Amino acid sequence: MAIATVNPTTGLTEKEFEPDTSEAVQIRVAEAAEAAGQLRGTRYEQRAAWMIAAAGILTEEAGSLAELITIEMGKPIAQSVAEVLKSAKAMRYYAEHAEAFLADAPLEDPAAVGASRAWTRYEPLGTVLAVMPWNYPLWQVIRFAAPALMAGNSGLLKHASNVPQSAMFLDTLFERGGFPKGSFRTLLIGGAEVAGVLADPRVKAVTLTGSEPAGRSVASIAGDHVKKAVLELGGSDPFIVMPSADIHEAAATAVRARINNNGQSCIAGKRFIVHADVYEAFATEFAKRMADLVVGDPLDPATEVGPLATRSGRDELAELVDDARDRGAQILAGGTIPDRPGFFYAPTVVAGLTDDMRLVQEEAFGPVASLYRANSREEALRIANQTSFGLSSAVWTRDAEEEAWFLANLEAGAVFINGMTVSYQELPFGGIKRSGFGRELAAVGIREFCNLKTVWKA
């Protein structure tokens, strides 16, 4: 895949980049390794000052950076602005909390282990490689980079090939804030070159957000070299609606959950599982709301759904819907490719799904909602848990016992009750099953790339 900005609204190539040579990659890895040594010796106060300064740059340049994000991957401009500001907020969060998250923890009864003192401490690993996707060009990177750098690590970024300008912005951001040269470096390389970088002994760990095949490949390489890995591999999140729920609020939230980021979010509600008692009311309102969405130029503030980021992504989504339609599914809204330039797909609701349809097992990465009817909570749970993914989930109910039952039985890394899944820097984020392993964000996110050292003193 060429390293290029292809505007998904027009389908036209706006800017192309030459991949880094092997010599350039070696220089950047060396810079990152040297910076890791420097960062290890700095104090939290100093790193926090640099991080806050870098966050200030994001805030000051939010308008131009948001426009760049929209041009590169097509999300509505208001959502791009929100992504920039959210990233700056996360940077400030880790600047303020890193020291407390990584503070030494004394053993309350050291005599039990024959010591006068015993404690644990967190220390940085060194240089961490991040392999990141295009759907949140800034946020996906910052939620790794902010905790990693605040812990005293340096970072290397292999970003998606279709967001090179976002990647290059990140290459200089932290140095502009005051971090030592090389603290964070972008590598303009293809996927085939990742193995060589990860194998380099100067690289101590890896984090990847992306497809399951990419995750398998990176995890295998990390395993061969006995390096720490964190993987977030997407999901097909259930959004369960029970009879006690507020149906109007649930339907309105379901639309936002499905079309946020033009439907290209790993934690978006994708499978809407509705109890039979309220299915017709929910389906009618949900399909109407989806059909009424404004599809258009994402730089226009009135647009609610922009294009998909790539032509291949749009075509793969259309194939999933066409397969379901051919096998007897009902299209309650959308189901078409608009007659216009760019990589657009109409907001779509598909019902009457059966297990032989690809849409049942594969992730629909775009504004396509799968709608299921469940005759009981047990059936709703079976549908929710039947995929190989287990990232997040949402349950709509005002029955306390029912809420507790779903909470105990849903196979997911998170459960959101009477709301839609959203990533917050304060909440741990990650999945189970084939959605990956490890966690990002909150205290656990900064600890993932640290050595937990145990200390015993006579």
Automatic annotation (TrEMBL):
Disordered: annotated span: 1-20
Domain of life: Bacteria
Residue spans of biased composition, Polar residues class: 1-12
Keywords associated with the record: NADP, Oxidoreductase
Keyword NADP listed: yes
Domain Aldehyde dehydrogenase: 3-455
PANTHER family: SUCCINATE SEMIALDEHYDE DEHYDROGENASE [NAD(P)+] SAD (PTHR43217:SF1)
NCBIfam families for the chain: PRK09406.1
UniProt similarity note: Belongs to the aldehyde dehydrogenase family.
Protein name per UniProt: NADP-dependent succinic semialdehyde dehydrogenase
